[in-house]
Specification:
By secondary structure, this protein is α/β, with parallel strands linked by helices. It has a single domain, classed as NAD(P)-binding Rossmann-like Domain (Rossmann fold, 3-Layer(aba) Sandwich), CATH 3.40.50.720. It is built from 8 helices and 6 strands. It has a 6-stranded parallel β-sheet with strand order 2-1-3-4-5-6, with helices on both faces. It binds NADP nicotinamide-adenine-dinucleotide phosphate. The site of NADP nicotinamide-adenine-dinucleotide phosphate has 25 residues, from helix 1, strand 4 and helix 6.
Length: 216
């Protein structure tokens, strides 16, 4: 029988790549923010946790948190609302979802958070960098309590052709490329291949894997 993967952020660039490559291998339950054509919808900012967890009935081998809010407000324009929204989408709601879903996870399941190179270099949007850095504390805290599961993080450099990449000026993209191996951007396929390895490889737990071309 196929393993079942629960994937939040079903419409994200990474989710599309993951579904395309691994949709045959796994049963993937995608959760979208607001797509009326789909079975599962959930807004990390506004919806009650039970509005989605009451609908999710399967047993899972992994939860992938691919949802995310891209950097959008600089330090001088910062607002409480923006900062809180960023933390809610990246940290608060994932923590609450996990609390409600642990009883449906098989032993050894992967819970994967997606962080960013911003956690070490900063971002023009402090809320984004703070939320991504905060994932490490979340991973370790939940690992202490739910020791039968494998919490992991992947921290990504700029992914070629992703929405955040497409919205950048060539100059800004070059700033990223100049600091990565071979002056290349991160390939979505390299990211999702690592995700598949993390689902399978039961020796990898409680780690933060940097897929960022050695960004320095
Ligand atoms: N792309 C990169 O270069 C890069 C680099 C470092 C880290 N990351 C991280 O990697 C993850 C995936 O990146 P990506 O480029 O594949 O993302 P993406 O294509 O920009 O998609 C982000 C997804 O998050 C969903 N989302 C936003 N707000 C939400 C909310 N309130 N509730 C539920 N879902 C919400 C969006 O839903 P809609 O489709 O409805 O808008 C979208 O599907 C994100 O966490 C991102 O921060 C990406």
């Amino acid at each position: 029988m196929k393993e079942t993967i629960l994937l939040f952020g079903g419409n994200s660039f990474l989710a599309k790549a993951f579904n395309e490559k691994y949709g045959e291998l796994y049963t993937i339950e995608n959760v979208y923010r607001n797509d009326k054509t789909q079975e599962f919808n959930f807004d990390f900012e506004n919806d009650n946790i039970e509005s989605i967890t009451d609908k999710l009935k399967s047993r899972y081998n992994a939860i992938l948190f691919f949802q995310g809010m891209n950097p959008s407000l600089g330090a001088k324009d910062i607002t409480a609302g923006h900062f809180i929204k960023m933390l809610k989408i990246n940290l608060v709601t994932p923590a609450l979802l996990i609390k409600n879903l642990v009883s449906q996870l098989n032993k050894g399941s992967l819970i994967l958070f997606v962080s960013s190179v911003a956690k070490k270099k900063g971002s023009y949007d402090p809320a984004y960098a703070s939320a991504k850095a905060g994932l490490a504390g979340l991973m370790h805290s939940l690992s202490n309590v739910y020791s039968e599961f494998r919490f992991n993080i992947i921290s990504l450099g700029l992914i070629e052709n992703s929405p955040v990449f497409n919205n950048m000026t060539p100059n800004f993209r070059k700033k990223h490329a100049d600091r990565m191996f071979n002056n290349s951007f991160i390939k979505a396929d390299d990211v999702i291949t690592a995700v598949a390895e993390l689902i399978t490889n039961k020796s990898i737990s409680r780690t933060d894997i940097e897929i960022d071309g050695g960004y320095m």
